[in-house]
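#struct-help
A.M.: can someone run this one for me? Single chain, 233 residues.
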Amino acid sequence: MPLPRSQASRQLRHRRQIDIQAYARDDGLWEVDARISDVKTRDAHLAGGVRPAGKPIHDMLLRLVVDRTMTIVESGAESMRVPYAGQCEDHGDVYGRLAGLNLLRGFRQALRERVGGALGCTHITELAQTLPTAVVQAFAGEVIDTRGLGDEKPFQIDRCHALRSDGEAVRAHYPRWYRAPSQSVADPHAGEASAAGSRQPAHDAGASRPARDPEAGRAARVPHPGPAARDPA
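D.P.: on it. Structure tokens below:
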């Protein structure tokens, strides 16, 4: 589906930027810096005063140290610019609670349990939710095999519609791991028509059966519906 048409006269009012950078360390661990900022193009009248146009309302950094299995070894957050100075950043070391979680195993649910809602910062917690796929991208081709040259199926297959194992992309680029769609998957009702046909009486489907005409008090002949005419409900 194409994008909605943009209006030529539209005016920028707000910009949110999310920047995620991953660094390989010489001890085998990785550092992931995730930063979020909100900037308005006009003066913002906040409870604590006026924030001039172009100056960040939010500017926050979340850092994870992860191992090659995507388990978080260490974590923490810093808030450089906030709307409520002295309160927004007063969440202690709550983001240190992410240590021990694995980015690929129940991470988002555990994130909400440990730092969600009033336990942490809305924006830093939202930022953390983007990290699993970002770290997968960082690891792709270095830590994670994405070419399928080994004995294990490439990580990315069957994780999105384009790379489903019975799709054209997998058949073209990963033929070893291509699986032709089975009949049961392609058309789960394929056997119903033949089953219905086998239950059809030996006489012609258009044959008649007697029915009582309530007005004339005599037998009338009405068509007997075949399988195709029956109400599917």
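A.M.: thanks! Confidence is low (pLDDT under 50) at residues 183-188, 190-233.
D.P.: also worth noting: DSSP finds six helices and eight strands in the chain.
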